[in-house]
Design brief:
It is a single chain. This protein folds into 3 domains: 3-118, Beta-Lactamase; 120-192, Helix Hairpins, CATH 1.10.287; 199-384, Histidine kinase-like ATPase, C-terminal domain (Heat Shock Protein 90). It has 12 helices and 12 strands. The protein has helices at 3-12, 31-37, 41-44, 50-53, 60-71, 120-153, 161-191, 206-219, 241-257, 289-292, 323-334, 369-375; strands at 16-21, 26-29, 79-84, 90-103, 107-118, 201-203, 226-231, 237-239, 264-272, 275-282, 338-344, 377-384. The strands form 3 sheets. The protein has a 5-stranded antiparallel sheet with strand order 2-1-5-4-3, sandwiched between helices. Strands 7-9-10-12-11 form a 5-stranded mixed sheet. The chain has a two-stranded antiparallel ribbon with strand order 6-8. Strand 4 and strand 5 form a beta hairpin.
Length: 390
């Protein structure tokens, strides 16, 4: 890329950009960086970062990122830190660092680039949501325990077995919600731990895939959905094994529940441009564009409430609380991987409330599984950092 063109891009970025040489001196800061850190051009001219940021104890985490880059040549892919500006305002910053490379006969590494953005409002909203989740979990626990104990004491009257079964089933659903909220609260705590405390290891993903694949037939034996495994490459990835296994099981379950009998769910693993990509792809009904914006929010389902019901796990169109996808997104934040969703709504389902018969052979729009697969489907992808061989 042309140097002049690169400079124009940096100057026009809304994110702050700070460039340091390996002596800690500031060689460049863009206008957005000056504004975010409450600095003037004359403040940073021929100055070192220690002269600007080291006096404020609340900036220790920000300084640690710079120190590790300068002294230990250790870049940070992403980290959230507090920063106290000169005007007294405390910001939450998302910081990423990388090395500045310049070609001058040969490649060199003359400095480090820190890119940062203000996420203060976002973090305030996250803290508010966390308080709501924590309160919800606490408030649900006691009345559910009382209700469960009381239900066991009730005498079943003649002809009331169906009513009792319905009460038991819905109580179980509420208990599942309470447990899921507890899990989410614990996951949010993990997201704020230092990187080394989230138990990340350099591991291969194939064994995780094989364990999930071995468990699925027994859990979905009442369905006729084929599970296919494709592993083209299995490099070491930085991950938490238990978290990945739980997340993969959730994605496969979700895929089977949205795929009609006769369809296929494929779990694939490959090296991508930015890491190790674990993908769960189905030939199911797909998700509309509007729904894709909300699926990671929790307690969301695409269809109107009158059409919605919670069935048995792995049933077609089983419904659910969408908490598994919310938890997966939180796992991604806590355990340093990326999650993405791509989907095409089945072309034969015109709206959110259009229904699929759940069996390809009973669909009047397609002749076979291949034609059904071309009509729609969904792919969830988890991308993990590549790790050096242990």
């Amino acid at each position: 890329m042309d140097a002049a063109f690169s400079s124009v891009i940096i100057e026009s970025m809304s994110d702050g950009v700070l460039v340091l040489d390996f002596h800690g001196r500031i060689s460049h800061i863009n206008p957005a960086g000056l504004n975010l850190l409450c600095l003037r051009v004359e403040d940073v001219h021929d100055r070192a970062y220690v002269q600007l940021f080291m006096e404020e104890p609340e900036n220790d985490a920000f300084n640690d990122i710079l120190i590790r880059g300068i002294q230990e040549r250790e870049p940070r892919l992403y980290q959230e830190v507090p920063f106290r500006r000169r005007d007294g305002r405390l910001l939450d910053l998302a910081v990423t660092t990388s090395f500045l490379r310049i070609e001058d006969g040969k490649w060199g590494i003359p400095g480090i680039v820190a890119v940062f953005k203000d996420i203060t409002e976002f973090k305030a909203l996250e803290r508010a949501r966390q308080r709501v989740l924590d309160h919800l979990s606490h408030e649900l626990r006691t009345p559910l325990s009382v209700a469960a104990a009381s239900l066991k004491m009730l005498k079943i009257l003649p002809g009331q077995q169906r009513t009792m079964d319905r009460l038991t089933r819905n109580l179980k659903r509420l208990q599942d919600i309470q447990m899921a909220v507890d899990d989410i609260v614990r996951t949010k705590v993990a997201a704020h731990l230092p990187h080394g405390e989230t138990e990340l290891q350099a591991l291969k993903l194939r064994p995780v895939i094989e364990r999930v694949a071995a468990a699925i037939p027994g859990l979905s034996s009442h369905r006729q959905v084929k599970l296919r495994i494709e592993v083209s490459e299995d490099p070491y990835a930085l991950m938490n094994e238990a978290v990945v296994e739980e997340g993969l099981m959730s994605l496969v379950k979700n895929a089977i529940e949205n795929t009609p009998d006769g369809g296929t769910v494929t779990v694939s693993l490959e090296r991508s441009n930015d890491g190790v990509a674990l993908r769960v792809r189905d030939t199911g009904v797909g998700i509309t564009e509007e729904s894709r914006k909300q699926i990671f929010g929790g307690f969301y389902h695409a269809r109107e409430t009158d059409f919605y019901s919670t069935k048995k796990p792995f049933d077609f169109d089983a419904g659910g609380k969408s908490l598994e996808l919310l938890k997966l997104r939180m796992f991604a934040d806590a355990y340093r991987f990326r999650v993405a969703c791509e989907s095409t709504r089945c072309i034969h389902l015109s709206g959110e409330d259009a229904t699929c018969p759940g069996v390809i052979s009973e669909c009047s729009h397609v002749q076979d599984a291949a034609e059904c697969a071309r009509a729609g489907g969904t792919a969830f992808t988890l991308v993990f950092p590549i790790a050096p061989n242990p």
